[in-house]
What we know:
Layout: E1 8-13, H1 19-35, E2 41-45, H2 53-58, E3 65-71, H3 77-89, E4 94-97, H4 105-117, E5 125-130, H5 136-153, E6 157-161, H6 169-179, E7 184-189, H7 195-201, E8 207-208, H8 221-235
Parallel strand pairs: 1-2, 1-3, 3-4, 5-6, 5-7, 7-8
Helix pairs in contact: 1-8, 4-5
Amino acid sequence: MRTPGTPVLLAASHGTNDRAGQDAVARLVGAVSAATPHTTVRGSFVDVQQPGVAESLGVLDRDESVVIVPLLLSAGYHVRVDLAEAASRAAQGDVRVTGALGPDERLTGVLAARLHEAGLRPTDNVVLAAAGSSDASAVADCHRVSRQLAALLERPVTVGFLSAAEPRLRDAVDAVRAASPGRVVVASYLLAPGYFAGLARSAGADVVSAPLLGEHGDPPTALVEIVIDLYRRSASGV
């Protein structure tokens, strides 16, 4: 039961036409809801799926306060523009938007776990596959994640992007293959199965890890904790 005065947690994901991706994100939102029984948790989307963020805000009471948590790995255009504008236009008096899910060392831990699940070997070369953004700060965030992953794995990690930024993933894979012996393994810095995960699989690597949210099973505890932490920091005014 929701505690009176507790802000609504509106989880805003990108949206996808991929059913496995839809289900994976829905499981994440469900897990966040289960872990916060005194908070109203709702899902919404910035693109592709419905309800959109503005629509989700529109059905809430005007006296509701809301914290929008982007289920996005980097704070690019959707966070800085789309969600910020939706919050500013909302009828509610207090609507806040948190930062993106990453960079966060807990996400890096999930990335490493996915690589080991895929059979990572000591001699493998690792390329981080990120969606990409025209926002320079979002690109910088991805490079920060690659440095975190390199430190955790104790080996170099190259970054490749699937859109909007350079180098593109296929070029990064080809460059690493030409420069180093051993397999090329892609670490999918992607939230869920979908279009970009398909592009990562077709970029020419020997092995591609699963996205942070797998097609089946419970979401990683770390992801649930990150969403809740973002919400609670914003709700408390920190």
